[in-house]
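Fold this sequence, please.
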Amino acid sequence: MTDMTDSATPRAAAAPLPDAARHGHVSTAYVRVLEELVQERGETVAQHPALLALKERLGDAVVMPMPAWREVLQAVSAAWQRPDLGLMIGRHIRIHHLGLFGYVLQSCLTLGAAMERLQRYERLINDINPLQRLHRHEGDTDWLVLHWGTDHGRPGPLVDECAVATLVQCARLLTGALEAPVQVQFVNPAPADVAPYTAFFGVTPTFSGTDTEVRIPAVVLDLPLRQPDPQLLGLLERQIDQLMAQLPVVDSDIGTMRRWLAQALRQQRATLPALAEALHVSERTLHRRLQQAGLNFRELLERTRQHVAEEYLRDPRLTLCDIADLLGYAEQSAFTRAFTRQTGMSPARWRRRYQL
């Protein structure tokens, strides 16, 4: 694999990222990998205060809050002037770094079986937006599509790229021969230099997509893995099921609520009573479900309104006044204040920066 080249412009965002996810967790294995990269550069963890603080805070934890991981990535990316830090971490990943999760994947018979376990146990490695495995036929090729939406927000380029690069790297390690083209689409804007991405994936990814996707030809799902062990797999799966039971609880209704509110905003009927009626529950039950997920209705509505606002801002036919009206604001200034508070930039500035 071609070494990734240095880039002069860091990709650490000083202002909050658009639609930045505020919840979710990722594997602490990433911290161990980053620590190894630090040491390979002749540095110590103490030279990176954010990394040191996170490492001390985690102890023996299996997962860590995603926002804390994003903060570390941004800090180290800026210090090293490496906007491709996520790719660097993914490229450095080895199966042993992932612990039980990695050994379960390694013990499967085929890559397809490993992809099934990836979806089943994904929460141990990445629990932000759930993975969907889709099959599509385009032209003469059948594709396996690994798809992540944005219902729970966008964690940002560094977090996304670290996760996607880890997945591709694991597929290569497991098969020892994954030379098939990998097509990648990121939801985030393109970096200034795409050369490291082309070097890693073998093709240049697309950016600013509606969702994040990794596509591989379906034919490679039958590739045998290098170290299959069905008996060990059964034992490991019993252990990993126990580990899964210890993970933080995620309210599966939140995605449904956000999708309904997004549609209701366009119809100007995004209220708590209307949402409760749509879900066939009482308002008290709805309050309880939101509370269990660490949310209240106002916060959920504002996050959803921000997500829909970004969709509207990508449409050059809509004025800011139009968008404010579509989102149910009494006046444009109220929309501008709310959007700026959420993203750290005005709607006009966001439109100039992220419009397709």
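Residues 24 and 128 are 5 Å apart (CA to CA). The chain has two domains: 25-245, 253-354.
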